[in-house]
Amino acid sequence: MNNNDGLGKSDGEPHTHDPSEKGAARRVQALEEVAIAKGLVDPQALDEIIEYYERETGPRNGASVVAKAWVEPDYKTWLLGNGTEAINHLGFSGFQGEHIKVVENTHEVHNVVVCTLCSCYPWPVLGLAPSWYKSSAYRSRVVREPRSVLSEFGLEVPDEVRVEVWDSTAEVRYLVLPQRPPGTNDLTEAELAGLVTRNGMIGTALV
Ligand code: FE
Q1: Given Cys at both, which of 25, 83, 110, 140 links 100, Cβ 3.0 to 4.6 Å?
Q2: Is the pLDDT of residue 165 over 50?
Q3: How far is the CA of 115 from the centre of ligand 1 (A)?
Q4: Any residues with CB less than 8 A from the CB of 152 and at least 6 apart, and which?
Q5: pTM to 2 decimals?
Q6: How far is 100 from 97, CA to CA, in rounded Å?
Q7: Residue 158 C-alpha from the chain's centroid
Q8: How far is the CA of 162 from the centre of ligand 1 (A)?
Q9: What is the pLDDT of residue 24?
Q10: pLDDT confidence tier of residue 89, bands split at 50, 70 and 90
Q11: Nearest 5 degrees, angle CA 57-CA 109-CA 173?
Q12: Annotated domain spans of the chain
């Protein structure tokens, strides 16, 4: 558990961005209900669209950041030193991405991201947060028993690797820089980006 980055208030107060986020979520939900009631939208299709944004569109931005860091050492240094600036440089910025810290997985440390109080998430690089990320089970358990939670995601972290859990706040959002997979020296940056998954950048999977 890392406590160095303005880690959240422990008084249970939601993060300051939350009212507008909840307001937006309420408006979207109201629109969904009206659209479904009027027969304009098939709920199944709507779920598929949301799923697409969770898995594909948003995370592709983060994947291109990761791939660039894998192939350009100077960019990686910049990214780890000033994530927000290096990410803005690729054109990804905006709401929920004002302060992004990038944490690097190595042979010594595996990083995983959570928001224990609500659902803070770096939208410009990861898109919409998946529902499990917002679940109270993930938010409470990943802090207490990160290895068990990661194991449930199919990720067994070896005992000699330290697990760091980063708690997002209104002030800072995190992006995990996964380790570049072995045997990928011949791949182009675009091909490398194609390997990077959303969960790899949250830290609940390897790439
Ligand atoms: Fe939050």
Answers
A1: 83
A2: yes
A3: 5
A4: none
A5: 0.79
A6: 6
A7: 22
A8: 24
A9: 67
A10: very high
A11: 40
A12: 2-202
pLDDT at 1: 44
At what angle are helices 18-37 and 43-52 packed, to 10 degrees?
A: 140
Within its chain, how far is the Cα of 77 from the centroid? 20
Given 3-state DSSP classes, what are the helix, strand and coil percentages for the chain, each rounded to the nearest 5?
50, 10, 40
Angle 73-81/58-71 helices, nearest 10 degrees? 120
- Please name which of 170, 166, 204 lies closest in space to residue 3, comparing C-alpha atoms: 166
| Residues annotated as catalytic (active site), given as ranges | 115, 118-120
Q: Tell me, rounded to whole angstroms, the distance of Cα 112 from its chain centroid.
A: 9
Encoded tokens for 12: 């249970």
Q: List, as one string, the DSSP characters of 130-189.
A: PHHHHSHHHHHHHHH-HHHHHHHTT----TTSEEEEEE--SS-EEEEEPPPPTT-TT--H
Token pair, residue 102, equals 């990038």
- β-bridge mates for residue 163, sequence order: 110
Q: Measured in angstroms, how far is the CA atom of residue 32 from the centroid of ligand 1?
A: 24
